[in-house]
Design the sequence.
């Protein structure tokens, strides 16, 4: 069995694709998998991958009249030629797309060559690529039940699988997770993450929030701030006299999730899936430039009672204080938020997707 997998360049596309490939190869040891990625992506070349990889020239298309827009259109055309040669050499039985523009040439050419096709949508609100590719796909796998309604007229194609997460993200004892960071098990721990690049907006207001907090000695922090703000925040934290761990980027998020009582975060599909998996009470600030997608993701948790949603323009240190202060000495409230995740988690999403393929 030969499976061709296409993924976009971000972690939100790549990590679910890799988790799916691992589950598929565990189920069918003789399966041959080829992953197609944009040349520019978040993976480091030295990363050990579970399958062979081919790179294509595709990049996001600039929607304006400029030389850069012409280059991006040429890259799209070139990618179709590259994928045609990949099909000729690999001859897949199934093609699987994980969204973004990179899935376009793979799924369209698979349809043209009469190869079975499946697309996977990570967000509640489908992306433009997947909404278009739904016409050419035999199956549409979704991460949230709410997504089905966005594929009007194609409901019979839709199958709920959930969103695959990295196998390394497992639950471990909180005590051991805190020891990993040199933090105390009995302190209220806040995890701050603005995504893989960090968020200066969240960083700025969170630092102001710490200054407003009484009895700071009750709290400790794990802050993933991104490379741009790291040096500046390191200096500020050093002068606050509090317990903290500051990272520009953290590869193994499992320890952070297992240590935390509360997370402050954006609402990318992978992040939402991971905090559902760890039943982690959340304050979610949807990224304003992907607002519809991230807000739709966040609303699922808000509706369940697991998270509080703050619009980016309304984010302030005072607003954070107003939400967090009542939770610090309220273990019953935290436990209620954790319990609200019941029914949302699909820990076997990768296996479900593999079974569908």
Sequence:
């Amino acid at each position: 069995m030969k499976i061709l997998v296409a993924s976009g360049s971000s972690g939100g596309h790549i990590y679910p694709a890799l988790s799916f490939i691992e589950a598929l190869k565990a189920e069918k040891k003789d399966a041959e998998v080829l992953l197609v990625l944009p040349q520019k992506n978040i993976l480091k070349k030295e990363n050990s991958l579970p399958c062979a990889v081919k790179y294509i020239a595709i990049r996001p298309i600039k929607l304006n009249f400029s030389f850069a827009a012409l280059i991006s259109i040429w890259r799209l055309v070139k990618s179709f030629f590259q994928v045609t040669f990949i099909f000729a050499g690999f001859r897949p039985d199934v093609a699987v797309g994980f969204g973004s523009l990179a899935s376009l040439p793979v799924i369209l050419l698979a349809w043209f060559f009469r190869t079975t096709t499946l697309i996977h949508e990570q967000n509640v609100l489908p992306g433009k690529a997947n909404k278009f590719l739904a016409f050419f796909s035999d199956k549409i796998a979704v991460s949230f039940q709410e997504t089905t309604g966005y594929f009007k007229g194609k409901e019979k194609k839709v199958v709920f699988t959930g969103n695959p997460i990295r196998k390394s993200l497992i639950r471990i004892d909180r005590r051991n997770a805190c020891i990993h960071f040199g933090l105390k098990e009995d302190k209220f721990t806040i995890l701050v993450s603005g995504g893989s690049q960090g968020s200066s907006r969240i960083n700025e207001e969170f630092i102001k929030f710490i200054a407003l907090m009484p009895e700071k000695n009750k709290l400790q922090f794990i802050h993933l701030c991104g490379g741009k703000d790291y040096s500046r925040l390191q200096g500020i934290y050093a002068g606050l006299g509090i317990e903290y761990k500051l990272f520009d980027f953290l590869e193994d998020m499992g320890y952070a999730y297992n240590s935390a009582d509360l997370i402050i975060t954006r609402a990318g599909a992978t992040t939402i899936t991971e905090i559902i998996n760890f039943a982690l009470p959340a304050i979610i600030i949807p990224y304003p430039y992907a607002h519809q997608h991230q807000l739709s993701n966040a609303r699922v948790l808000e509706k369940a009672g697991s998270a509080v949603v703050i619009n980016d323009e309304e984010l302030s240190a005072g607003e954070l204080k107003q939400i967090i202060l009542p939770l610090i000495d309220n273990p019953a409230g935290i436990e209620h938020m954790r319990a609200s995740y019941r029914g949302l988690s699909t820990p076997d999403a990768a296996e479900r997707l593999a079974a569908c393929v």
In short: The chain is about 40% helix and 15% strand. The first strand starts at residue 2 and ends at 6.
